Amino acid sequence: QVQLVESGGGLVQAGGSLRLSCAASGRTFSRTTMGWFRQAPGKEREFAAAISWSGGTTSYADSIKGRFTISRDNAKNTVYLQMSGLKPEDTAVYYCAAHGVDYRLPSSLSHEYAYWGQGTQVTVSS
Questions:
Q1: Contact, 91 vs 123, CB < 8 A?
Q2: Cα–Cα distances in Å, from 82 out to 18, 42, 43, 47?
Q3: Residue 98 contacts by C-beta under 8 Å, 6 or more apart in sequence?
Q4: Backbone angles phi, psi at 112, to 5 degrees
Q5: Model confidence over 23-62: pLDDT tens digits?
Q6: Which of 82, 72, 80 is nearest to 31 (CA)?
Q7: Residue 11 DSSP class
Q8: Helix %, strand %, coil % for the chain, to 5?
Q9: pLDDT for 65-121, tens place per residue?
Q10: Distance in angstroms (rounded) separating the CA atoms of residues 16 and 124
Q11: Quick one: which of 30, 21, 27, 122 has its CA closest to 78?
C-alpha cells in the first residue's frame, strides 16, 4: 500500500507560480515512477507530467510544456510540480499518482498508476 499526500495548492493570479509537493510512504519510492494529473471542473482527469524512478526521464503534456517542471527527491520520498506562468485554464484539482509497477518509464496513462493522493486545488484568477 502507498500513501500519497499532496500540498501546495492555492489561489494565484495569472502569470504567477506555485509549487506542489507530494509526500509518499509505504513503498520503496526510489523504484517508483510518479505522475501528476489534473481535473478541471466538468472535465475528465488529464495527464500533466511524470518522472521516472531515478528522475532521469520526464514527460509533459503539451499544454504545460515549458511552464511546469516535475522533479523528485528520493531522499525525502517527495515529488514536486513547479508551476510557472499559470493561466486560468490551469485551474484544477491536481493529483499525485504512483505507478503500479517498479522501474517503468514515465507514462501518461492514468490506468497504469495504482495509487493516488486526495488532490490539491489550484485556482488561477485572471
A1: yes
A2: 6, 25, 23, 15
A3: 2, 4, 24, 27, 32, 33, 34, 35, 113, 114, 115, 116
A4: -80, -10
A5: 999 878 999 999 999 999 999 999 999 999 999 999 999 9
A6: 72
A7: E
A8: 5, 50, 45
A9: 999 999 999 999 999 999 999 999 999 999 999 999 999 999 999 999 999 999 999
A10: 8
A11: 21
